[in-house]
Write a structure and sequence with these properties.
This protein is of the alpha/beta class. It has three domains: about 160 residues, 3-Layer(aba) Sandwich (Rossmann fold), CATH 3.40.50; about 200 residues, 3-Layer(aba) Sandwich (Rossmann fold); about 180 residues, GMP Synthetase, Chain A, domain 3, CATH 3.30.300.30. Helices cover about 40% and strands about 20% of the residues. It is built from 22 helices and 28 strands. The strands form seven sheets. The protein has a five-stranded parallel beta sheet, sandwiched between helices. The protein has a five-stranded mixed beta sheet with strand order 12-13-14-15-16. Helix 2 crosses helix 7, helix 8 crosses helix 9 and helix 12 packs across helix 13. The longest helix has 22 residues.
């Protein structure tokens, strides 16, 4: 909605402006739903606007000024989503933070952005801010949403969310004109939100995104997938993540669709089935977990049911994607697929909550092709996109009918791509971030004067199709001692296809061979142990059980056979591996809050284990410091078994030829 000069329609230059349009266009239509105490509650666009206005007026009455930063910390709830737009309405800048972040991580972000207010979802978040508040001189107000557990707190230093709204309603007559003046002064290039990166390689950076970035990206991506006002999404991913912001704020306000918030993480799958979203996003980890649960259930099924499932899923893998993409399929296969829809595919999609999904996406990490193909075989229109915080998410998307597991699609509308000589992917688009907050050096090294942004990923654009293929993180792609290409993420994704393997980290750059650290999936492997009457006292004990190690070894061998078929990457076969005695954990610094592996941290922390794998040892004793949920530190001691893997041929020699 811009004129020929690129100036936006003045009615649609900000999120508050889009809210006003939605009230006029969809006033009585549900904008938000939340499940509380087992009951879905709903707010229309008109009711949403009233809630947001009351909060904005209350914040202004408390002294919030234009240009100041306000932190938002908590799980997905309508009231916290309203706070984004209320803060924007008051001319200030919302800064969502990860709800599972430790107090020290929150302290860094609050201090870095100079937040003057913090809106906390519950007691846990209030406690974390309280713990570090003496180091935050800019923080003036602490607002809480959920009062549970806070009766004995010093409320002279706290303000309830409802009280802020009540004060706003009381002061409406005096402040409404000022609020309107602030809204009228907002421009398309003013800041819409500041989001922190996951900090894979260092301290998180504050990414400044403008109204132009968010609205143009929301408009273009919504048009790409024909999103509509009658679509439904489930908002369950971290509110601090750019994907949730673009889906639950950007696209929701552009199209007018309804945002549904689950009651809790524990009820998410039940709530997903009840809502039956038409537009769905999940990172690969969620799809992997759901597939693991399906496979566990099938292991417990009767022999006939398992036989039927295996036969019909084999058919689905062969013809399901073609039927989904409306390609020619033999009449008998189409008939059998319809039978499978009645007996297996339909009930399974309903169990997963995917019966109504019209557009589904996965991103954040590369998804294993086998996992991706499984869902598409069921008739779920799952696609891949490639994006990052600095792009307001969208860099590439897969058009309907052109979906493949080995690409991430074509440039999103308005996006330009180019590949540097060293293979790094660059882009520029209307969604390109303004700057890194208080970090001009990083801004200049990431975005050049012409607006081209370095992604840090290596890839290439296919001739003929124009699809982008991502190989790996540019800094992780290397060469083995033989000269063979080393792309660890490619191998890791294949390993994580197996329900028993939760996480994998592969090492081999500059070496004669590749080795791997693996995490077992406690749910899947624990279920197997229960079925086989195998007792275990801890994750550590189960991870080193001989039968578990034998099973994992078989998975590694199968992955090696698959990798051997790829001439370019056959040198990446895993020669040796170990199963770690603990899960990789964000609290221990081994992963980011978005579940991305910090490869450098792991390599340094477990250097002795890596040396043992490359050195040919058969076992090693190790001690590892861990952080418990309450913040206490402890140590885990274990003797790990190091194993050789079955390798197809002389992998390094073959790849070097």
């Amino acid at each position: 909605m811009t004129d020929r000069t690129g100036v936006p329609d003045p009615v649609l230059h900000s999120m508050p402006a889009l809210l006003a349009r939605n009230v006029a266009r969809f006033g009585a239509k549900p904008a938000y739903r939340e499940k509380e105490f087992g009951i879905w509650q709903s707010w229309t666009w008109s009711e949403t606007a009233e809630e947001i206005e009351a909060l904005a007026l209350g914040l202004m009455d408390m002294g919030l000024c234009a240009g100041e930063h306000v932190a938002i910390i908590g799980r997905n709830r309508p009231a916290l989503y309203w706070s984004f737009v209320a803060i924007q309405s008051a001319g200030a800048i919302p800064v969502p933070l990860y709800q599972d972040a430790a107090a020290e991580e929150i302290a860094y972000a609050l201090d870095h952005c100079g937040a003057v207010f913090a809106i906390c979802g519950d007691q846990e978040q209030v406690d974390k801010v309280h713990e570090v508040q003496d180091r935050l001189p800019a923080l003036r107000k602490l607002i809480y949403l959920e009062a549970r557990g806070m009766r004995r707190y010093d409320h002279a230093a706290l303000t309830a969310y409802g009280d802020v709204q009540a004060q706003g309603r009381t002061r409406r007559g005096a402040l409404q004109g000022r609020l309107q003046a602030v809204a009228d002064a907002v421009t398309y290039d003013d800041t819409c939100v500041m989001l922190y990166t996951s900090g894979t390689t260092g301290r998180p950076k504050g990414v400044v995104l403008s109204n132009r970035n968010i609205i143009e990206t929301s408009k273009n991506s919504s048009a790409f997938d024909h999103l509509r006002a009658d679509d439904e999404i489930l908002a369950y991913l971290p509110m601090a993540w750019v994907g949730d912001f673009i889906f639950s704020i950007g696209q929701a306000y552009w199209t007018g669709f309804c945002v549904n918030c689950p009651e809790s993480a524990d009820t998410m799958m039940t709530d997903l089935r009840e809502i039956g979203p038409t537009y769905y996003f999940a990172p690969p980890r969620v799809f992997e977990t759901q597939l693991t649960n399906v496979m566990i259930r099938m292991e417990d099924a009767s022999r006939f049911k398992k036989w039927l499932f295996d036969r019909l899923m084999a058919l689905a893998r062969r013809v399901g994607p073609d039927i989904l993409d409306r390609r020619p399929v033999a009449a008998m296969d189409r008939l059998l697929y319809r039978l499978g829809e009645v007996l297996v595919y339909g009930p399974l999609k309903n169990t997963l909550g995917f019966s109504r999904v019209r557009v589904g996406y996965t991103a954040g990490e590369a998804i294993g092709p086998e996992i991706f193909d499984f869902y598409r075989a069921l008739g779920i229109n799952l696609k891949q996109l490639y994006g990052q915080t600095e792009a307001s998410v969208f860099i590439t998307q897969q058009p309907d009918g052109e979906v493949r597991s080995d690409t991430v699609g074509v440039p999103s509308p308005g996006v330009e791509l180019r590949i540097a000589e060293d293979g790094e992917v660059f882009y520029r688009s209307p969604g390109t971030f303004v700057r890194y907050y208080k970090n001009d050096a990083s801004t200049a090294s990431t975005k050049d004067a012409e607006g081209w942004v370095a992604t840090g990923d290596a890839g290439f654009i296919e001739e003929g199709t124009g699809h982008l293929r991502i190989i790996d993180r540019a800094k992780d792609v290397g060469r083995m001692a033989s000269g063979a290409l080393f792309a660890p993420k490619y191998v890791e994704n294949k390993l994580k296809f197996f329900p028993n393997i939760l996480e994998a980290v592969v090492f081999g750059a500059g070496r004669e061979m590749c080795v791997a650290f693996l995490n077992i999936d406690l749910t899947a492997v624990g279920n197997w142990a229960e079925r086989n009457n195998i007792a275990y006292a801890s994750y550590q004990e189960l991870s080193q059980h001989p039968q578990v190690l034998a099973t994992i070894g078989a998975h590694v061998a199968e992955v090696n056979r698959s990798i051997a078929d790829d001439d370019m990457l056959s040198g990446c076969q895993v020669h040796r591996f170990l199963v770690l005695h603990k899960e990789l954990d964000a609290d221990d610094g081994e992963m980011t809050r978005t579940r991305k592996v910090r490869r450098g941290v792991i390599g340094e922390k477990y250097a002795d284990l890596i040396d043992a794998l490359f050195g040919g040892k058969s076992e090693i004793y190790t001690e590892t410091e861990v952080t418990y949920e309450d913040g206490r530190k402890g140590k885990i001691r274990a003797t790990l078994i190091l194993q050789d893997a079955v390798v197809v041929g002389d992998a390094t020699r073959m790849a070097a030829q």
